[in-house]
Amino acid sequence: MPKIPDLARAGRRRAKLDGMGSSGAPMGATSGQGRQAGGTPRAALADLLAGNRRFVSGQPVHGHDVTAAAAASGDQQPYAVVLGCIDSRVPLEAIFDQTFGAICVIRTGGHVLDRAVCGSIEYVVGQLGVPLVMVLGHERCGAVQATVEALRTGQRPGGSLAHLVDEIAPAVTEAGLDDPAVQPLAIRRHVRRTVRTLREDYLLAGPVAAGRVAVVGGLYDLATGEVALLDPG
Ligand SMILES: [Zn+2]
């Protein structure tokens, strides 16, 4: 399990991030859905994983009805941001049993980063004070499989799909294109590479180094619904 900084003593103090303004919503001014966790990376991760356990056990507590929407209609105070794949089998709010206002969600094919994704994460961390970023890959990811095929055939797709392949390709190459298990290996490597890239993001690196923000990687099992944390590798 990745090491999560224990910021319990600093717990209720809203982190003011290096080099980031604080012109977003008033800090701690409302009792939003996302502040139960206390504002530390460790507590946020515990809350997120607890939600996944509720989902897996068939005992979710959050319905997605209009009353939940109304309850969260004030200022938002999410406690985590999850970057996942667009795969229709991996609906992030559902698998973490999260209600409206609790987490921010970003989804791209193979959770590939681009400037819009990085800017969105920088906003959530810097302006909303979110202490946890999770990158969530999943088994049998079509984007990774497409990259494996592209590298094996030498046929790079056209259009913007090429961007996804180009961004995933280093993980496939590292895993070994000839390895029979290249796809599951590449999926894990791609999560870890994405985590490392975000930890080095120029607006996130300082807060990450100071322990105020954690970036962790996870893997979703399509069949069981379980999220397992990946060690940094
Ligand atoms: Zn996928």
Short description, anyone?
Helices cover 38% and strands 13% of the residues.
Question: How would you explain this protein's 3D organization?
Answer:
The protein is of the alpha/beta class. It has helices at 41-56, 66-71, 92-95, 115-126, 142-153, 161-175, 182-199, 205-209; strands at 80-85, 103-108, 132-138, 214-220, 227-230. Strands 2-1-3-4-5 form a five-stranded mixed beta sheet, with helices on both faces. Helix 3 (92-95) links the parallel strand 1 and strand 2 (103-108). The longest helix is centred in the last third of the chain and has 18 residues, at 182-199. It is globular and about 50 Å long. The termini are close together. 40% of the residues are buried. Zinc ion binds next to helix 5.
What is the general shape?
globular
C-alpha end-to-end distance: 11 Å
**Going across the major beta sheet, what is the strand order?**
2-1-3-4-5
Give the number of helices: 8
Descriptors:
233 residues; alpha/beta; binds zinc ion; 5 strands
Topology:
Blueprint: H1 41-56, H2 66-71, E1 80-85, H3 92-95, E2 103-108, H4 115-126, E3 132-138, H5 142-153, H6 161-175, H7 182-199, H8 205-209, E4 214-220, E5 227-230
Parallel strand pairs: 1-2, 1-3, 3-4
Antiparallel strand pairs: 4-5
The chain binds zinc ion.
